[in-house]
Amino acid sequence: MFELIAPCHFGMEAVLKKEIIDLGYEIISVEDGKVYFKGDEEAIARANIFLRTAERILIKTASFKATTYDELFEGVKAVHWEDYIPKDGKFWVAKAASIKSKLFSPSDIQSIIKKAMVEQLKSVYHVTWFDENGASYPFRVFLLKDQVTIGLDTTGESLHKRGYRKLVSKAPIAENLAAAMILLTPWRADRILVDPFCGSGTIPIEAAMIAANMAPGMHRDFLAEEWSNILNRKLWYKAGDEANDLLNLNVDTDIQGYDIDGEIVASARDNATRAGVEKLIHFQKRPVAELSHPKKYGFLITNPPYGERIGEREELPQLYMQLAERYKALDAWSLYVITGFADVEKYIGRKADKNRKIYNGMMKTYYYQFMGPKPPKRANNGAGSGAAGDAN
Fold it and tell me: Which domains does the chain have, with CATH numbers?
């Protein structure tokens, strides 16, 4: 058994925690931007392939207190790194982050940890030089209040890189953040979802993947697939087979994405085709002023412009006024907006039912949730009514 660490966007820990529990694993702890859980070798493969909202999956390799660089060196040197790094392994500290700790220089932390690893492995492998021409073993280190945690990165390229998004709009939302936004709502595959500012199509594509039960990592590679010393490659094939068995592309959906830019809409269609969900989404060139839908109980889930670029901020009031007008014209719909624009509630005309602070990269944004009424339960015991969320 391993202790595994799943970093995520700040503010999305609860969503990731639920995903991990739904996969069948035990949560150890949750802190800002990270969820710790227990799992075996198979869990490493399944977490990488199935988790929609995580950034990556790390194997926790060490945890100790250090207030000086000497303590850091000795703490690292005391770890049995041969349990993780083979003699020909290429290893390095890919990232160091420090919060409220006496040791705060990322480059110094990275350098000292690598030196300590080398010293320890020299004594085990009885060599003075490592060729490092084998598989890659990148480590990430976090210091919080002088507590050092070191994790071995099993993922490689961040999990948000599903592989479908080749063409992007000006300010694309990360795929895992888009998935988290959707999972925070009561939306289900039999409900309507419209993104009136769809850009390169990320929110509709992630919604379609959720509707089709498509594992987000089923079409990409992971670093740990090459680690024959830690993981049996058959476990990756097994997790991939599980993902294929669960996939259902015959689901009926009403997922739509609109954008005012025709070229961006074309790129969104291309991205959806690469994701394999193009039949589940309708993309259209349409300004937000023309947003409409004849049915009730739909969801607007969107990432409108924030006005972070010069010249855009003056246009925002008009944009949000149009969004508010069209939202009010929709019958019994819910609106979910992630934005750094501070006056959303003013233009929508009411206070959000929920408002969650989320860091989109280094940018502080807010996820405003304006909830419409629940649809009536269906005669067949309400099955598939979309009432799985308690918020709508």
Answer: 2-153 (3.30.2130.30), 175-214+230-370 (3.40.50.150)
